[in-house]
Amino acid sequence: GGSTTINSYNDIEIFRQRCQASSVMLCQIAMWNPSIFRKEGLLQLDTVIRRDMFNLLDAYKLGDTERDTHRIKLRHKMMLDFNLLTNHENTIDICPMTSGEIIEKGAKFIRSNYTSCDTPKSALNSYCIKEKLKRPIYRTEEMKPQRIFRTILELDNKRYTTTTWEKNKQQAEQGAAMVCLNSIGIDHLRLKYANR
């Protein structure tokens, strides 16, 4: 809860003492300007990016780091400076999807569209039985304090997830199952109505 009060290295210690904690974990302020950890004081963002983060950043991370200072113009200028406009497009062609990567698509599980027996998870389980595959493994992560969930589903050495976070674990699992079914070419909605 100190992201609004911590603006320098000295503020970290003041915050720690005020909370009577043995240590302090910084997330947002460190993301906005990683030089917060310098005892000598903060550096300008462009200096931090050029000196410390050039090899680590992509276009998305640059957007996070710059926060809200001249958002569009600065982002475009940084992307041009670091040649990220063309590099980002080229990496899609250079780096094909491997089994270790996650297939991520937009999918939203709407409970009212399904009965308890006709869900994406049940359709995927039926597919696994039919194809003699091991059952899918669901790993759900929770983002606190928002209490939102995202599931990564693993099936046949491939991983699938949604682009969005869900309000509960069950919806996150169903969404991941929808992505998996879509990726392997199964229309679970058509399957649902064909079974009636």
UniProtKB/TrEMBL annotation:
InterPro entries: dsRBD_dom, DUS2_DSRM, tRNA-DUS-like. GO terms for molecular function: tRNA binding; tRNA dihydrouridine synthase activity. Signal peptide: none annotated. It comes from the Eukaryota. SMART domains: DSRM. GO terms for cellular component: cytoplasm. Transmembrane segments: none annotated. Residues 120-185 form the DRBM domain. Pfam families: dsrm. PANTHER family: TRNA-DIHYDROURIDINE(20) SYNTHASE [NAD(P)+]-LIKE. This is DRBM domain-containing protein. It comes from Didymodactylos carnosus.
